[in-house]
Structures are given as structure tokens and as C-alpha cells.
Amino acid sequence: MSAREDVLRRIRGANAAAGNPPPPEVPRDYHRTGALAPGSPAVLELLADRLVDYKATVLDAGDDVPAAIRTALAGVDGPVLVPPGLPDGWCPDGTVDAGFAPAELDGYAAVVTGCAAACAVTGTIALDGSPDQGRRAITLVPDVHVCVVRADQVVETVPELLARLTPTRPTTFVSGPSATSDIELERVEGVHGPRTLIVVLAG
């Protein structure tokens, strides 16, 4: 018997001797849907409001996503990276990721991706590594992330967001630009990811 097994055996024995009851059921009566319909003008307005609070830039693309992406990249000085499955025409001048190492990714000024879903009430965008988003590294190393969010991908609440995601996929949750604060609440951006997040709302 290993030390671990011995310790666990003693814990189980002590619990049984004390007559400890089984753990209580976890309540599951929380709201699973919001009052706002997915993709509605109200839910899009709420998402934009939260993103701006997080110091992200929000652009309304309407039906012209390429033009909005060009606007988002207008101030970017350097090459732009795109995932292999980004829709044709969205960023024709972008370099398709070919599995570049982190040092190579650091040479790109920006990345343009799609998203898996978005939650309006928390201002959170979910990336799951799908072809239009690419692997996690390409959205963490370049200093600017331009993320296209379609109206039909936006829901109001966290339970609705999670219901749209596949739990076995490598999910990244993005709420504004990467930022952290030290003990004196000095905000520093770009520590764990892009310093600038530009969200393009499409449709």
C-alpha cells in the first residue's frame, strides 16, 4: 500500500466512523437564459457597452466585414497574421499561420480572427480553436487582436454562452485587452496577451 492509499483509507474510515452525511445537492435553479434574444439589437448594445468598459474598441461592420477590418488595421504598423480558416476576403493581405514558433509570432503586429460565441452581460468573447480562430498562441502573442463577432453568436448570459461551446475544445475567454494590476492597483496592459482588442460586430 502506498502512502497516498493509506492516507485516503484513514480518511474514509474516519468519515464512516463519524457518521458524516453525504454532501448536499448543489442547487441548479439559476437562470439559464436571459431576457434578451440572441443577436438582438439590445444584446449587441449590451455587449458593446461592456467591451468599451473593458477598454476594447468596437466597430459596427454591418454587412461589410472586410471594410471594418481595414479600418481596424489602419493604425497597425507591421505584418498581420490570420488563421487558416478565416473567410476569404476578410483580410487578403494577412499571412496565414503555418505553425510559427512564439519568436516568429512576435514579429507580427496584429492577428485577425473570428470567434465561437460571445456573452453580452460579461463582455466575454470565447475562442475555441476552430479554423476561423486558429490555435491559441496566435491570439496571445501579437500586440493587436481584431476579432469578428457575428450578431447571431451573441447571447446575454454565461449559461447561454457555455451551452454554445464544446467542452472538449481548447477554449479561451477574452474580456477586453490583456491587463493586470499590481498591489497598488497600477494597471498594466499586454502582460498575458494583446495590448489592444478591436471587436468587429458583423450582421
Report on this structure.
With 203 residues, the chain is an alpha/beta fold. It has a single domain, classed as Rossmann fold. 23% of the residues lie in helices and 23% in strands. It has five helices and twelve strands. The strands form three sheets. The chain has a six-stranded parallel β-sheet, sandwiched between helices. The chain has a four-stranded mixed β-sheet with strand order 8-5-6-9. Strands 10-11 form a two-stranded antiparallel ribbon. Strand 10 and strand 11 form a beta hairpin. The chain starts with a helix and ends with a strand. The relative contact order is 0.20.
Provide a quick synopsis of the model:
This protein has 203 residues and is an alpha/beta fold.
Can you identify the CATH class?
A: Alpha Beta
CATH architecture: 3-Layer(aba) Sandwich
Beta strand % = 15-25%
Overall mean pLDDT stands at 92
Considering the protein shown, what is the CATH homologous superfamily? Answer: NagB/RpiA/CoA transferase-like
Strand-pairing-aware structural class? alpha/beta
For the record, the count of structural domains works out to 1
Point out poorly predicted stretches: none
**Main sheet summary:** 6 strands, parallel
Please tell me how large the radius of gyration is. 21 Å
What topology, given as strand order, has the largest sheet? 1-12-7-4-2-3
Query: What's the helix-strand series?
Result: HHEHEEHEEEEEHEEEE
| Alpha plus pi helix count | 5
Q: End-to-end span in angstroms?
A: 62 Å
The coarse silhouette is globular
How much helix is in the residues? 10-25%
Strand tally is 12
The fold-level CATH name is: Rossmann fold
